[in-house]
Amino acid sequence: MWEIVLHLKLHSLENHPLKNNYLLLILLLCFTTLGLAQTATIRGIILDDKNTPVPGASVAFMGDGTVTNDNGFYVIVIPANEDIAISYTYVGFKKITQTFNLKANADIEFNPVLKTDIEQLGTVIITTTTRQRVEGVTTIAPETIRKTPGANAGVENLLKSLPGVSNNNELSTQYAVRGGNFDENLVYINEIEVYRPFLVRSGQQEGLSFVNSDLVQNVAFSAGGFQAKYGDKLSSVLDITYRRPVDFAASVDASLLGGSISGEGISKDGRFTALAGVRYRDNSLLVNAKQTETNFKPRFFDAQSLLTYKFTNKFQLDFLGNIAINKYDYEPLTRQTNFGSLADPLALIVFYEGQEEDKYETYFGALKGTYQLNEHTTLKVLGSAYHTQEQEYFDIFADYRLGRPNTNIGDEDLGDVEFTQGIGSQLTHARNDLDALFINVEHKGTYLKDTDQIDWGIKYTREDIRDRLEEYEVIDSAGFSIRPPIGDFTNEQPYAAFDAPLEPFTNIRARNNVQINRLSAYGQYSKRTEVGNNELWINAGVRAQQWTVSGDNIENTTQTVISPRAQLSLKPGGNSDMIFRLSGGLYAQPPLYRELRDSLGQVRPDVKAQKSFHLVAGHDWSFNLWERPFKLVTEAYYKGLTDVNPYTLENVRIRYRATNNATARAYGIDTRLNGEFVPGTQSWISLGVLRTEENIDNQGYIPRPTDQRLKVAFLFQDYAPNIPSLKLYINMVYQTGLPGGSPSYADPYVFSELPRLRDYFRADAGINYVFTDASKPFPKGHWLHVFKDLTAGFEIYNIFDRQNSITNTFVRDASTQQQFAIPNFLSPRVFNVRVSAKF
Known about the structure:
By secondary structure, this protein is mainly beta. It contains seven helices and 42 strands.
């Protein structure tokens, strides 16, 4: 199967100009180094019971051993294929002893926590380290991700419970951070940047996230002020690390929305490991519950794998591959939406003809070679290729009526439209095709000695996009075809014949063949030092990128941006475990292809990079409450943006104007309290306050499309005291309403006085019964013995059946010269059944 990924479906790319370059890239990266070893490696960080690293701790076995460095980090090499008892000791703490029996060349992570009051045996996996606290990075336990309920469960579903992160569409995996949009977020898997499809316009078309939650080991997220080692985006970084298998394991997850299967294993000599997952999803359960009656046939499938071969203890080669095939067939039938107020109720009734057929196929392959030059220096070479073929075809004719519904309670025809004040029809047509191939080659390096660290990197990216855009919309209201809002003409019907040519309300036709070459580099320096009895961490770095846009009938245009960034963190001495942070710098986002395409589909190569000045001040406090650990993180931020490329938002599709004629600003405060509200579980509550505005052509500041003023989120885990195997998970989000928006490419100032969308409130709950897990294995002979974990239960999405909306549909009435903003409502309450098992 992976041979398909490696060849990037080249049978469909015979004439693609980059095919030979890609094959050469794969050959160059497939270098090998032979070596034999009968040892295994254990590495990790030793911490105390406050999750503070313990420097100088002893790690010993059979008369051999080492001590931890200033960051609490250790590496030890032990004999393979035999029982080795390792002791972890430090003055004032209880001794920990753990026995390992590892295969040859195995390389595992073991992070013990030394405690003063109890003995401890076994592995402790930590989710928060001092390094991440210093950098202002939020970490999330993978098990919490897998168990948290949601209509589109996964990493992105849990991100929405963090302050500063918003999304008003439960079917979408896209998210906005601190006033930014969906295109301003970086996503990495094992240090490899991943991409999203281009043409998706609604959440129900998205299907699966690129990130497979079944394969995840670590999740780190930064909402702003991130270091120079991360790429050129304006808002956030999501850094995912997949597991490194140490034994055979498998898992199965099934529900009414689809299912997933994953497996992992390691070779006998410990050199080769494999991690793979297959997923299938069907959104019918959610979409068929919405107000629009449809014939809906979604087919979302993907297969993903991480393969690692360890040639020596110093060199290993990783391969990450992914195939995703999403097919979306949609035939709307009818729709009725009631809106307005109690005093002035209105209703929209629509009868549809036609259908939509969309298809998104993506193929991704990446190789990463890691070489440990010496104990201080690590060198990496990464190469990746991403190929997407996307199709968006639809012809949908809609007859609509605007009227007043019957509001007399008790009448048989309650809710029916009795008086029609406007009629019309709309025909939308699209034949859009996009074929894009991205190739990346990158080198990274790290030098670490004592308390000093230097990171550097250089990356070349080639983007080749072939795009056919063909869309038009014809609107008829009260028997008159509504013309586009351009040109000079008079309409004196029915008193005089209309002799001007009939034009669709919108008509976009373009063919683009575009190449973008990017060269980026970064360097940064980090240091830990002491000032009196206080600990101080310093990070300073700079990024630079030069890119050239070329293509058919396009004049070559080259631009360059430089982005300096810095972080300063202080941990005061004393009994309180606090860290104060200050970070910021200049951030730039060179335009992707979508940002270069204007409202007529034409590419404007001179579009500049959007730029932002970040300033983030944070406070991180770990403390005990009710004799249980808690943590309070607060950040205040300001972002000043220049060379802004204005856009309109249609569901989840962003349409840029391909100009840099605006400035913007965003500021607010985020806080999150997490800890053991219930003993033995992790829960949190988040609060975010935000204001973001833009000024287009010096017309004055108006709210940006992502101006989400207030957010409160609550993630809660609990269990029945008398039945601890019965567990409850609640994921609840409240957000104030977004601006009402405007039609695609319309003047947002004309619509800036529209009422905001209604407040967004959604609560999802899951109730599970754990038949067995690692803490209570069953003996041989019992039917549950084969399971490491078996859980079954049900989930309720949108518990309170809240009618949330994401955007407005704008309906025009020629007879009254009015344009109505009609909300598009999301899914109501839905029940789901779910079973998961690990072997």
